[in-house]
Amino acid sequence: MKILFKIIILIILTELCVGYLYFQKSWEKGSAVIWAGERVYSKYISVKKDQSLILSRSEYRASLVKLKKTLEDSNIKFAVLYIPVQSSNLNPNKKRFFQRVTEDHQICFIDSSKSLNEYPLHWVYNLPSDSHLSRLGHFLVFDETQNSLERCEFMNLRTKKIGVANIEGPHPKNVDTVDQYNSIAYRLRTNSKGFRMIGEVSENQPTILILGDSFTFGTGVNTVDTFTNLLRLNIKELNILNAGIPGTSIIEQSQYLYSMGNLSAVDGVILQVLDNDIL
Questions:
Q1: Which of 105, 90, 97 is nearest to 58 (CA)?
Q2: Average pLDDT, consecutive stretches of 10 residues, N- to C-terminus, the chain (279 residues)
Q3: Exposure of 136 by Cβ count < 10 A (0-12 exposed, 13-18 middle, 19+ buried)?
Q4: Alpha carbons 68 and 40: distance in angstroms, whole number
């Protein structure tokens, strides 16, 4: 009887501790212990990203080199923006891979992990409901990216290109709706060209196209709060185009870029990468 009583007390204490650690959880959803177990399984055991999108390191390197050559042939500046996933500290060699491959091929590397790691996980990611970046997370990525643009030579762009306003985005045009991912509702807006941004593209301004997945797209946050929109608002002398496509990797993102038709109208490309892009 005493053993049973101790077990019950232990379960209650565990429930309270888990509920406290993940205080955003709605208690109406049931047991915090079961909920935490599901979170651990989904983040560290199951693989959410389509396995066909995850490349070997040699495949990724080849795709990156091909993308760089295409951009160089069109005299387009190139940089890689690394955003860590929530569990990236469990496998830090993936970040080292991106650092090494960009260094080997002389690509400017923007590392947002240090800024994000300065805060608790549930501040910079939409935990516990989702592992995408929170509003604070987007702000920190924006800040790191903005501070790196001069080093990556994006602030020295002097465009004489035309046709920028004719670049087609990857999404349906003129969307203004409320979408939901897991339990998070957010406002989704696109402009008349199908980019997830507020406002239109200006001619006669240098244009930076930001490629990426749902972390660039901004799943879980309003369009105004995405790091790409913060860049656009704070660097008015540049066109910043959000071409993030959820559920994609470098292959699909490059295909979009190659199919644009008027790639020469772009002055710079930033490719956002994520730990689960590679095996």
A1: 97
A2: 70 64 48 53 43 81 96 95 78 89 97 94 90 96 97 84 84 95 93 94 90 97 98 94 96 94 90 93
A3: middle
A4: 37
